[in-house]
Amino acid sequence: MGKNLAGKSAFIVAVLVIFCFGIVGIPHGGLTQSIKDRIHLGLDLKGGTHLVLEVHVAEAIASATDRDVARLEGDLQKAGVVGATVGKTDPSRPQTIIVSGIPAAKLSDARSVLQGNDYSTYDVTTTPDGNSALTMKVGAARDLETRTLDTSIETIRERIDKLGVAEPVIQKYGLGENQILVELPGVSDPGRVEEIIQSTAKLSIHAVTGGPYETDQAALQANGGVIPPDSMLVHGSGSAGAPDQIWLLKRVSEVEGTDFRDAQPGQDQNGRPNIRFNLTTEAGDRFYKYTEAHTASSATPGSMAILLDNKVREVAGIQSAIRDSGEITGAFTQQQANDLSLMLRTGALPASISYLETRTVGPSLGAASIHQGVVAAIAGMLAVMIFMLIYYKGAGINADLALMLNLVILLGFMGFTGSTLTLPGIAGVILTIGMGVDSNVLIFERIREELRAGKTAAAAVQQGFAHAWVTIIDTHVTTIVSAMILFLFGSGPVRGFAVTLAFGLFANLFTAVLVSRVIFDAILQKKERGAALSI
């Protein structure tokens, strides 16, 4: 008995030491600073920026079908189907591609291309006027929307990480479809963050087919009153310091954000900030083919427009073929050049975003929340400890020691895992204290029943723990399941509450069953046989 008790006591001490290390780590800069470095505070305690974003996933579908329009034109030409027109004629149905003008002798060849594996994500039908319609399948569209949201989250996360924000929360927002929650503790300048995130909007290079025009009406008149379905009108300056103008651009981009392999800020020969970029191999080959065919010395010279945030930032002639590297110049400040190169290095958003909610939590409010939460936790713990001492006498000391060890284990766990403590998380800690006392009450009351039945102190303790164990497990399992549901379907602070509650309950099982039993066994070992138990 003595050897077994010593082994259990050594194990409890080892657990206590390990989790104390989890709270403070290797002390540096004082005990308070060491604890702050290990226990990270959430947005509501530290202050910072809270954003809710909406991803316009429909743009990703439109972009994907735009790409497939260009690809389908090339595939039909390779199959010998000459004269067919490929495009999207209905702006309200961006997921549908119409192929018209297929020569009767080439219908079979065209059908083979349209129904091939390259276009398996489309349903192919015949329209009433005899044209072929490719409509993206519902399942494929949903998969693309899901990938678009996931990619947006990862892109935003990577850019936020490069800003050096500690413990950011970037995840799907459960209150709406295609929404993202962004919480940045300690960030006091939400404008800079919004600029970084919002400017992740697609950067692309398009062929110029007309312009510049002074007004939209002038652009329409120059094109017979109708904008071709494969083109679009875009406003912009076209060069540094130029007034706003309108350009007619090819809808399908030659190069866009996902094609950039690397980008670095620099300066041009005039000392103006610019961005030097490198393209992926596939994009470089595609861009070389386009620029080689439209150089100033070719039979079809052309120019290209650089779009950022759906505005023309620069229009330049093609002097020579470009394969895998180039420069983007424009009316950039040095900070804008740095931010834009960061965006290109970390990838482009597959669709644009808009802000549904922007909220800033001040550090003073966070400090007040910490103070009030800590006061509530201490007051609650002291009240519980005093009650246990008064009501259960000597056994109350047992419960109070287990309760303090429970709190140490919980905080140590948060220190080891780098969990973020939020205000609801503090509420979870307080609730864990209550659950810990609840377990001790079940055990102590059962021990009292056994003593009233005439059993010895040792037998009463043994039976008390044995019979209360099933009830304790039942209450803890149901609460842990509830915490898991909160973690799976909650967001931000709700998850913080679920984490602290769930692990606090696991810690409570350890302290209420093992630690309390060891303390009782140590007390009984020192008492004379038949001596009364203070409970």
UniProtKB/TrEMBL annotation:
<feature type="domain" description="Protein export membrane protein SecD/SecF C-terminal">
    <location>
        <begin position="352"/>
        <end position="521"/>
    </location>
</feature>
<dbReference type="Pfam" id="PF07549">
    <property type="entry name" value="Sec_GG"/>
</dbReference>
<dbReference type="InterPro" id="IPR055344">
    <property type="entry name" value="SecD_SecF_C_bact"/>
</dbReference>
<dbReference type="Pfam" id="PF02355">
    <property type="entry name" value="SecD_SecF_C"/>
</dbReference>
<dbReference type="InterPro" id="IPR022813">
    <property type="entry name" value="SecD/SecF_arch_bac"/>
</dbReference>
<dbReference type="InterPro" id="IPR022646">
    <property type="entry name" value="SecD/SecF_CS"/>
</dbReference>
<dbReference type="GO" id="GO:0005886">
    <property type="term" value="C:plasma membrane"/>
</dbReference>
<feature type="transmembrane region" description="Helical">
    <location>
        <begin position="465"/>
        <end position="490"/>
    </location>
</feature>
<feature type="transmembrane region" description="Helical">
    <location>
        <begin position="496"/>
        <end position="520"/>
    </location>
</feature>
<dbReference type="InterPro" id="IPR001036">
    <property type="entry name" value="Acrflvin-R"/>
</dbReference>
<keyword id="KW-0811">Translocation</keyword>
<protein>
    <recommendedName>
        <fullName>Protein translocase subunit SecD</fullName>
    </recommendedName>
</protein>
<dbReference type="GO" id="GO:0015450">
    <property type="term" value="F:protein-transporting ATPase activity"/>
</dbReference>
<comment type="subunit">
    <text>Forms a complex with SecF. Part of the essential Sec protein translocation apparatus which comprises SecA, SecYEG and auxiliary proteins SecDF. Other proteins may also be involved.</text>
</comment>
<feature type="domain" description="SecDF P1 head subdomain">
    <location>
        <begin position="244"/>
        <end position="351"/>
    </location>
</feature>
<dbReference type="Pfam" id="PF22599">
    <property type="entry name" value="SecDF_P1_head"/>
</dbReference>
<keyword id="KW-0813">Transport</keyword>
<feature type="transmembrane region" description="Helical">
    <location>
        <begin position="399"/>
        <end position="417"/>
    </location>
</feature>
<keyword id="KW-1133">Transmembrane helix</keyword>
<keyword id="KW-0812">Transmembrane</keyword>
<comment type="similarity">
    <text>Belongs to the SecD/SecF family. SecD subfamily.</text>
</comment>
<comment type="function">
    <text>Part of the Sec protein translocase complex. Interacts with the SecYEG preprotein conducting channel. SecDF uses the proton motive force (PMF) to complete protein translocation after the ATP-dependent function of SecA.</text>
</comment>
<feature type="transmembrane region" description="Helical">
    <location>
        <begin position="423"/>
        <end position="444"/>
    </location>
</feature>
<dbReference type="GO" id="GO:0043952">
    <property type="term" value="P:protein transport by the Sec complex"/>
</dbReference>
<dbReference type="Pfam" id="PF21760">
    <property type="entry name" value="SecD_1st"/>
</dbReference>
<feature type="domain" description="Protein translocase subunit SecDF P1">
    <location>
        <begin position="150"/>
        <end position="209"/>
    </location>
</feature>
<dbReference type="InterPro" id="IPR054384">
    <property type="entry name" value="SecDF_P1_head"/>
</dbReference>
<dbReference type="InterPro" id="IPR048631">
    <property type="entry name" value="SecD_1st"/>
</dbReference>
<dbReference type="GO" id="GO:0006605">
    <property type="term" value="P:protein targeting"/>
</dbReference>
<dbReference type="InterPro" id="IPR048634">
    <property type="entry name" value="SecD_SecF_C"/>
</dbReference>
<keyword id="KW-0472">Membrane</keyword>
<dbReference type="GO" id="GO:0065002">
    <property type="term" value="P:intracellular protein transmembrane transport"/>
</dbReference>
<keyword id="KW-1003">Cell membrane</keyword>
<keyword id="KW-0653">Protein transport</keyword>
<dbReference type="InterPro" id="IPR005791">
    <property type="entry name" value="SecD"/>
</dbReference>
<feature type="transmembrane region" description="Helical">
    <location>
        <begin position="373"/>
        <end position="392"/>
    </location>
</feature>
